Amino acid sequence: MTRIPAAVIERLTRYRRHLRILAASGQRRVFSHELGQLIGATSSQVRRDLMTIGFSGSPARGYDVDNLIEDIGAILDPGPDESFTQVGVGHLGRAILEYFHRRRPDMVFHSAFDSDPNVIGQVFGNCRVQDVARLEQVLADATPMVAILAVPRKHAQEVADRLVQAGVRGILNFAPLRLRTPDSVYVEHVDIAASAEKVLFFARQFGRSSEPS
Amino acid sequence: MTRIPAAVIERLTRYRRHLRILAASGQRRVFSHELGQLIGATSSQVRRDLMTIGFSGSPARGYDVDNLIEDIGAILDPGPDESFTQVGVGHLGRAILEYFHRRRPDMVFHSAFDSDPNVIGQVFGNCRVQDVARLEQVLADATPMVAILAVPRKHAQEVADRLVQAGVRGILNFAPLRLRTPDSVYVEHVDIAASAEKVLFFARQFGRSSEPS
DNA sequence: TCATGTGAACCGGTTCACAGCC
DNA sequence: GGCTGTGAACCGGTTCACATGA
Asked: pTM, whole model, 2 decimals?
């Protein structure tokens, strides 16, 4: 399969969300312009994206909803040995653990860690929080593919180093700093304060919306 | 001032973070290649960005650190009448309120709302949580520029409609759906589950890092 | 000599436009 | 006729390369 750009991967999530709604309402087929309307993209964009993932439809009947859901799943869904781990179980960490537990049971959390003795031992989602000091031991058996990092800035780099050392291949980082990691590890930064500044800037500038759906 | 692309706005936050560290350590001047190294960009990128915001340096001595911090602040910092409001004070909402209170006191929260009677009246950051039913009344006097939306998906669109109606100009949305809003409102979506899927995909693919700093 | 400022080239993602097919 | 699949054009952001100046 040809390389899939990040922008396409991001849209696949959105396609699938709407496809599931269509499937639930019994619709078996979609046209590119319908799907585009639903996620707020052009029909060419949709066709190009589906071409990129190697999915094809028919001029007469459009795209098969169920097959498309399945093909997107094959790209996005975790494999049986691909789990997550979370470090940092403050408010943000709890929000994440509980969100995934409720909404995305397909994304399995192998473990969760914190350093606060009051938090260690508590259960969120369905993870019992373990002492971050034991991170290496706990990850040694079945190393999760991706770590979600929701610790204070001052600990983020150190924890990231340990996660990489432990064999984690991707990190979703919420601490407001750029992690320094080897090129073999994929890192995505979510900087909430920076996003808020960005929204403020464009809201002030002259309110032009990003794309809908 | 010529239009500033979103990519530049995002980097300004990072430039400033490092500039403040330099300033604190007494450094008065930076060269584009130093600043680039710090945030993980090329020197051309830095020069182009500073050109875009109309900041100039000297070939002999580089860029003035303090002036640059100030000019970035003029772009990113909230004006005196530009505040935030938050709707949804669950775990995620609390994390956000407390983070900004502690780390970004310059970004003022005008108000915070929730619908849970157990949460209404509690204080997070320095906002007392008010009943979301009273949103219109509370926002009527001094309408915040930007709303941060951290409510469950099923309420997000309805709350967004009310916020827009109340005069909010930008929304930072954490609910996993694309809000439908008029073009005059700037919306930024933070979809944590989608980000996690993206990290998983690229981690699996062949771990290629995004840019550092 | 070395860094800035900037036109020009480049690149990857998006959109256009149309050939091919049901 | 209307839709898919796709080469080609387009566009905006990034990088190159060099003229200019201390």
From this structure: 0.94
